[in-house]
Amino acid sequence: MRSTGRIVDMRAHHANRLHSSMPVQRAVADASFAYDTAVVGLGYVGLPTALALHDSGLRVLGLDVSEARIADIRAGRADLLAADRQRLASALTTGPDDGSFVLTSEAGRLPEAETVLVCVPTPIDEHLAPDLTALRAACRTAVEHAVPGQTLVLTSTTYVGCTRDLLVGPLRERGFEVGVDIFVAFAPERIDPGNDRHVQQQVPRVVGGVTSECVKRTAALLEHCAGSVHAVSSVEAAEMTKLYENTFRAVNISMANEFADISRGLGLDITEVITAAATKPYGFMPFFPGPGVGGHCIPCDPHYLLWQLRGDRVSSPLIETAMTLVAGRPTKVVQRAVEVLAERETCIVGARVLIRGVAYKPGVADVRESPALEIIERLRRAGARVWFTDELVDTVRVAGVELTSVVEPGSTDWDLVIVHTVHPGADVSWLSAVPAVLDTTYRLGELTHRSVL
């Protein structure tokens, strides 16, 4: 470990100088930073990234504006894979003492890090337009505290041109020359929450820089937590790569849902059909139907592209149709629930309905954009009495009403159970005694009395 006393003083000197009106020095500063990297935003992307970098031997400064989030991390309450939980325990044991892993809410410490990774959420608002509030704030903070010799890397999914708008332009306004005394790149995150089959240390990362030196410096860092690094010609190419990845998924999920509807009409098992098609070793990738899509990526990312295209008066009918169909899937779940109840001569009004799992995908405690929330709200509007059960989610708030997870779902007589999410290892044997089950996962073929969406 390097001595940090002189380093901190040097960083503070740079910060004070750059916050004044004096011009930026045209030479790369002494590379003796207290931390190899600072990770801005310690959510589902930032925290695993910080842990992977620390596990590789780097000195990491974790920054989050939420003191509550930092407290949860320190208490080990973060939603992580088992391997990352072990890394967190190790980092919290030794990191604060040797200075190799430090958590803070003080943005003024960013000048202590050689590289700054921006890993904040990029959701959409109620009008399906990008909500850049967190991203603008994080980038503004990174720029305000930037010092010569640093590399700033944006990892949050966003529109094409955002890196130049929020980092490159503001840095030039401060007097920096990007590629000479400061370096900027875009390297979209590739983390699959709850899935230990695709750990980030084995997944390639795409990097696009303002200059070749920007790419080189960013790649040198990300090689510590990625299977490999694939460089592209520009930050814009990297931004579009991420949009293409998740739009591809949205379009194919929409098609899988449509084929599921067609197959039910023809009396076919869509899961059997997709599994059979997946035996083809080329030209096919399996996507499975479900109750809709949730989380941080698929329901949001394509709208960043659509929003930008609308501003340029460019039409994209395939993507627009796919996103419309994806958004309408929870409504179809409720319509199907009404049909299943009617087949048993039960009215939706007053029916006792249980949602099995409200997390947006198996293995996570995340309910962001979860279709289950809209399903619950629409069922309640239709007059149903609705409960949920989920081992990983204690409470959810829907339309101002807080619901608490049912601990023993098998002890109640339900008119209908809608299977939305089944976590790995979850016991769903009690479903065999439920008179009506709507399986929106298409995975419970052993339940002979189930209905599918």
UniProtKB/TrEMBL annotation:
**Protein name (record):** Nucleotide sugar dehydrogenase
| Residues in UDP-glucose/GDP-mannose dehydrogenase C-terminal domain copies | 354-446
Note whether Cell membrane occurs among the keywords: no
Q: Which source organism does the UniProt entry give? A: Krasilnikovia cinnamomea
Which InterPro entries does the UniProt record give? 6-PGluconate_DH-like_C_sf, NAD(P)-bd_dom_sf, UDP-Glc/GDP-Man, UDP-Glc/GDP-Man_DH_C, UDP-Glc/GDP-Man_DH_C_sf, UDP-Glc/GDP-Man_DH_dimer, UDP-Glc/GDP-Man_DH_N, UDP_ManNAc/GlcNAc_DH
Give the UniProt family note.
Answer: Belongs to the UDP-glucose/GDP-mannose dehydrogenase family.
UniProt KW NADP keyword: no
Q: Please, which domain of life does this record's source organism belong to?
A: Bacteria
Q: Which UniProt keywords apply?
A: NAD, Oxidoreductase
GO terms for molecular function, please?
NAD binding; oxidoreductase activity, acting on the CH-CH group of donors, NAD or NADP as acceptor; oxidoreductase activity, acting on the CH-OH group of donors, NAD or NADP as acceptor
Against Gene3D superfamilies, the record matches this protein to: NAD(P)-binding Rossmann-like Domain (3.40.50.720)
Name any Gene Ontology BP term.
polysaccharide biosynthetic process
